[in-house]
Batch of 4 targets.
Target 1
Amino acid sequence: MFELVPATKEDFNLLYNYELQIIYPFTKENDDLDLIKSNIKETIQNNIREYWLIKITDIIVGMYSVAYHNGGIIITGIYVEKDYRNNGITTSLLKKEIDIANKNKTYIDLWVFKGNKQAISLYEKLGFTSSYNVIRNKIIMTYDGTKINKK
């Protein structure tokens, strides 16, 4: 299958390019791309410990960014190379976090672009619901592990 390998400072350019691949399809004509790029660079530099590389054998096929914060799980990015999509990587990553959320009776938040219908569909199938808008083209979806096995 695949493995997660902690990202290092040497992976900065790869992570930066993956983050751009996530964002570019959903940018608008009037978006400040220089500001977006600057924010991505700062986020990676300040949070490198939250980034993981997704590897199959010795091939890097994507990245995953997750933080455990205030008792909850925050997924800030998932990117899988096109040739490796639809092979269950994202589903497997999310199911692992869902198991943790259920066990610890906590929540998972993730950000998704409103136009990313394929991702939204997957998240909904796994039990995530739309919470609220973050900015005009992003929403937060939440999985609530506190509701599991309540009587």
Note: The domain at 3-147 is CATH 3.40.630.30 (Aminopeptidase).
Target 2
Amino acid sequence: MAHAGSAGTGGAGLAGGAAGGTTAAAGAGNGGTGGAQNGGVGGISGGGGIASAGGGSGGGATCPKPAGQICHEFYANDNSRNELHHVNEFEPAKSWVVKVGDTGANSARGIQLVDNQQAKTKQAVLVSVDKGFVEFDVVDGAELNRVNAFGSVTSALRVPSDATTQLPAGTTILARDLAPSELDFVDSKGVSVAPAAKLGFAGGTEIRKLERNPANGNLTFTKYESDTAAYVYEVTEQGSLLAKLKLPVGSKGYNALWRDGGNLLAASGSPCTILSLDSKGTVLGTLGGKNQFPAAGGGFIFSDVFSGIQLLPNGNVVVANWLGHVDASKHADTPELLEISAENQLVWSWGNQAAAALITYGYVVR
């Protein structure tokens, strides 16, 4: 559904956004928006691999939307239809959708681009599924590798081959929603390469997406522990507790990302906000919120649960608007991925019930 770009009607915005100027992007997109585009250095395109600006070029391709509108290429997980979507708005013919080959709400959740020598471009997209993880070719979605010897897997994270890890090259860390929650460390065939880490300090259920600090290898994840208690945890690569930050009451969480300066970004879940937190968990600012962004047909874009988030190089945040707590068929035109600027303006969106059912996480590559 196309609609006009819109500024949020509330929200404090986020402190400490990306440095740089502001570029304008007015008009409506294909399942997306126009509106003011908050830019990092050089706007949204550049060496970070996130290319855009309507009518401009990105990765050698031109955005086919009218000038001033935004195109993205991205991956998105649908945990209702158990699908992985690759959407290329620059070259729509190169888009594809595949079944992830596993069922249940955990299939699929996390998304990560990884090296894979079997892939046509030596790169694959790794997604977590309930029984483990699957790697698909980025070009056409062909399945390259599958690990399915586990259960209750809610996230899969491939570690890099650098000095920040003590794990063998190619190790994938699995987060599992057990009692207690657990981290497993496996190779490409699912064979254990290190003892599992039992996270007995983290109560409740619903451990969600692992994120990794590229500076030191530490991990974050969120846990929903009761109706009044949800937390961001920071642990070492081996699973030892470093920090426990309580999210505001009513939050659920999905993933938490490091920002320059040691702060974190986290989605709140049902409140439909994105929180900027300092190292002690103090809320420094928020984005989003219910009834914030005007819809094309009047009223506001419906928001159910903000789940997975991605911080773009320009300081904008892409968040999944998961519709799993309502009858999604009654929200047929509600977009499922939203891009929000640091000024709490909606600058792009994608999705409806014809495209996908329940998007838990989106990952923009350009």
Note: Residues 106-209 form a domain with the Lipocalin fold (CATH 2.40.128).
Target 3
Amino acid sequence: MYREAHIGDRNDTLAQFVIKLSKLPLAHQPGEVWEYSVAVDVLGRIIEVVSGEPLDQYITEHVTGPPHMDATDFYVHPDNLARLAEAQRGADGQRPSLPDVTKSPNFLSGGGGLTASTADYLKFAEMMLNGGEYRGQRIIAPHTVQLMTSDALPPGIDYSARALTTTGDIAPTPAIGQGFGTGLRCVPRRGTTRSPARSAIITGPAPGARRSGSIRPKS
């Protein structure tokens, strides 16, 4: 149904995407299952409406700009194209089909649209580790970080077959001692997870899902 409606078409704006999405029925009743969805993309549109700014401009001004994450954007800038990493070949010898990240898309995917260098990602991870602060500069409020890294899933929630198939072993299930906050897998209780992370795990789209691209470190 999503494919037929062209949900996530990179030629659509976030406003057009939300209009398309609003015409489709819910896959599940709210609170019944954890589903790998486009919820964070919808959140991106909410940010645009509330702030009055395009999502890319808002992120640059308030998130990636202050810690100088200069290689992070919704596309790879010309001066970084030589550093763009390629996807690994599969068992069939072919590289997976990925979106063209060399051009700025209309669809500013809040859930999986950014490209970044390893150094930039480490800055973001350091900021999260320090409760939303990067080297003395406040980027995200402490209570926001707490909300992001706190388990929001109710006890006994089910997981859709699609979510388990798409995310596989990284699905935030109680079986591996994890929950899910706002865009982050989290560990509700110390010592209950198979992952080495202590409290929160920053994740991107699952393998084969909506990952955009990454930039090699400078040599």
Note: The CA atoms of residues 66 and 137 lie 8 Å apart.
Target 4
Amino acid sequence: MRPFNHPCLWNGPAWPYSTSVTLAALANLLNDYHQNVVTKDDYVALLKSFAATQHDPDGHPMVREDHDPDQNKWLAQGANYNHSRYADLVITGLVGLRPRGDDFLEVNPLAPASWDYFCLDGVIYHGREVTIFFDRTGKRYRKGVGLHLLIDGTEAASAPMLRKLVVPIESRKPPSVGESGGGSESSVPPGDLALKSPTGGTLQRLPNGKEEQGR
């Protein structure tokens, strides 16, 4: 990157919004096209690199306007510059909840086949509450082995390994703010809602709604 005394330049910095658009395009390519150039591993590697930038020097979650492409530091000032679609990339790409306009629920995880577990819980989709989880051994969530798709707490489909699942879903009026589409209780045991991180730890949901990385 060519040095210049200005923080907002298009001469090499990584821009969170542009990186988000690129990752969304890769997920669309992997889901909607037949090709043998881009792989799931490519998507996960770029998402992992992107995830490493989503914090300030002290490790707290934060996004600025642009990031140094070679060093772990933000270039522009101004914290919480919300140009990152990181959560969307995890939901629609990594976990694989693919938005559709018809009455079908499609899930096609791009998560690594080597992962032992992950869970996305309490997502309101077409007015229904959706849970997606993968448990290689069945011991993490104690709800069965493999990939499972639940609608309003009832299992709609499953598979022994990660693969695409498509099931009918009857749309309903979305619940009001503060309400739940399928009841107030989680579809998986409390305290076990965790996403296995690429470093081998887990991101564990805390009572205050924040997340921490465990081992």
Note: Confidence is low (pLDDT under 50) at residues 190-215.
